[in-house]
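Box 3.1 A note on notation
Throughout this textbook, protein chains are presented in two layers. The first layer is the amino acid sequence; the second is a token string describing backbone geometry. Keep the layers aligned when reading.
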Amino acid sequence: AAIAARTQGHNDLTEVNMSCRYIPHRGAVDLGRAHLVLDGDDARPTSPAEAEYQDALARRLFAGSPATTRVLRLSHRRPSDETPEPSLQQCLRANKRKRPDVRRRHIPSSPTLILDGPGLRDNFYLNVVDWAATNIVAVGLEGVCYLYHPRAGLVQPVAQAAGGDEGGYVTSVGFRRDGVRLAVGSSGGKVELVDAQETTAHISSLGGGGEGRASSLSWGGPHELAAGFAGGAVAIFDVRRRGGAACTLPAHRGEVCGLRFAPDGVAQLASGSNDHTVRVCDVRSPRAARLELTAHSAAVKALDFCPWRRHCLATGGGTTDGSIRIWDTGAAAERELQSVATGSQVSGVRWSVARRELVTSHGFSSMNSTSNSVRLWRPNLLPVAQLTGHRGRVLHLAVSPDGGTALSAGSDETLRFWKISSIGGAGGEASPPLPA
């Protein structure tokens, strides 16, 4: 009757308080304190010191002891003269918003050293520059291979082109992984082995494994050397034997201008050719190619296996292609992980072990983009830096054993050393991983 009397005198029913339930005000609920109180029985302190620590933590996070303060309220809290302590949720949100203090990475835009290379042939299909694990650089200039010692600044002739006519020239060089042995290919199709420590010590000559010049070389182990030839053949030599090749892989339809063994533990050999394909062979059963990658539309000279991820191969195409592609060579069929169009000829690809980045060299441009450059990429092929200075296309690329310096050789007959990483430095953010 009382309620009826009140409702008769008011038209607005919102003023009638007919609720008899206990409904707390959601804006005043402290979920962090509630969680701590509910878990209190399951997280009893095991010592007086731990109990004191938990009590101090509760006072700091919840502005008082959770046992003596209210969790649920029927209305907003009254304003306090004191500055309120931040709640647990506010502390977590503030921590997420904070960015680490990371110093900006600086990559010098000018080379640290420039060397003249008279006689460096302007030929995209040759591979006449390599950097050994012992910090020695090999360069083929016309008919002679030279060794350069960066620390001492010393240059020594080590071998001459063999097996050709009087106009023979060096077409490829390749250090064994320990840097002690050096293989030198020539325009006559012969491969010479020399001791990189004793430059006067000639070891042996390997017979030709195919037709034409030996355009590319790669070491797979202490006694395993692969050579690619202009006729399309790929031969694998056992350097302990004299004579011809131990085995020959299925031939390409064009000159083999790129060759690379996978790191230890993966028995794969990748070969790139002027027939626009890349073949990946299992060296334990080399009678047939395991994979044939056909996405490129120009000659593939630039290729390299990733040193920290198994079955990961990076390749780069020539002028009319200009793309960089990353492949999963462990898949049963052709599987591309990542790709990017660079707009210029890709003459070299190398993984850097210092920062987990990709270093590439570039020549002719087909899209009015900057050519004749060295570029750095993250593993997901986002650009990091572009280094320019060559007055001609960059033909060859090598990276120092510590990954801190890149060496480019161009048709302007110069060799340029670029600082691409501060070894042991703290600059820059970590590179993102490759896609799965």
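The two ends are 74 Å apart (CA to CA). The CA atoms of residues 32 and 89 lie 7 Å apart.
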